[in-house]
Amino acid sequence: MKQLASGRISENIAVAGNYMYPCYVVGGGGRNLMIEAGLNLMGPLYVKSIEEILGDRGLLSYLFLTHSHYDHLGSVHYLKRLIPGLVVGAHERVAGLLRKESVLAMMNRLSDVQRLLMRDIAGDEDLVIRQTDIGLTLKEGDVIDLGGLSCRVYEVPGHTRDSLAYSIPEIDALFTGEAAGVPQGMDDHTPQVGFLASYEDYLTSLEKLMSLSPRILCLGHAFVFTGEDAAKYLRASYAATFEYRSLIERYLEEADGDVEKAIETMAVKEYDEKGTIRQERNAYLTNLSAQVRLIAGMKGR
Ligand SMILES: [Fe+2]
Question: Do residues 169 and 12 touch, judged by C-beta distance below 8 A?
């Protein structure tokens, strides 16, 4: 089954925030974990949800980040300020980026584009993303004991170099961030492919995720797949990656290898004319140019 990432997903998983920028609260063991820190401007909504789900925000022990994009770690500083005992876990590279003022400034700029849309949630709270210490640097093979449940860490580069996925094996749940893309829309299950850092790594990471055969698949945006559909989505995402590469290669060929021209034509034909992609146009363009450049650079491989 495919469902929106909101409300209660299973006995042990509930969504904080909303389906656009979901954070997944995993409870039922002795220690509660939240995966993803979404958008900074949604901080107050995350805290409200955490209180509703756990009864007391102080009962959240861990916050694990999936990757270094502003809309997946935005609330980390705010949450750490409001929940002082919270232990934040992330890839070592994310920890480094969260100490860099230039990176933080860029993340704040990107988030601010949504300020008008989020004004009812953000109010006038101070939600600026600031330097945050990562208490726990996470890597492949790490297992965190949640008391009755455990969280396993997988390195899944390709979308970014610092992408991590998390599984809770006791309940066959898998949290991929954006390592497996996101469906294009509510009715369109076709995964939107996102190999922004490396095409080859993205495929290898998808193979790793497929080998875990989850029964609950919680994506970085919008949707959760359960039962047979969880593994089915991952397989579709894998196939879509090859198809997307071929599509990019066709546009590059038509443009005689002119990367800029290929990007421009592809944005018009695939985004403007089809009109089926939910992602905001600027974000789509940023991702598209990263992917076209990667494929152009791979010619002959
Ligand atoms: Fe991302």
Answer: no
Ligand 1 mean position, distance from CA 159 (Å)? 7
Which residues have their alpha-adjacent CB atom under 5 A from ion ligand 1?
A: 69, 178
Beta 60-64 vs 164-168: how paired, if at all? unpaired
From the CA of 168, how far away is ligand 1's center (Å)?
Answer: 21
Q: What is the DSSP letter of 265?
A: H
Pairing of strands 164-168, 150-155: antiparallel
Options 3.40.50.620, 2.40.110.10, 1.10.645.10, 3.60.15.10; CATH of 2-238:
3.60.15.10
Q: Which residue has the higher pLDDT, 274 or 50?
A: 50
pTM of the model: 0.95
pLDDT digits (tens, 9 = 90+) for 190-222: 889 999 999 999 999 999 999 999 999 999 999
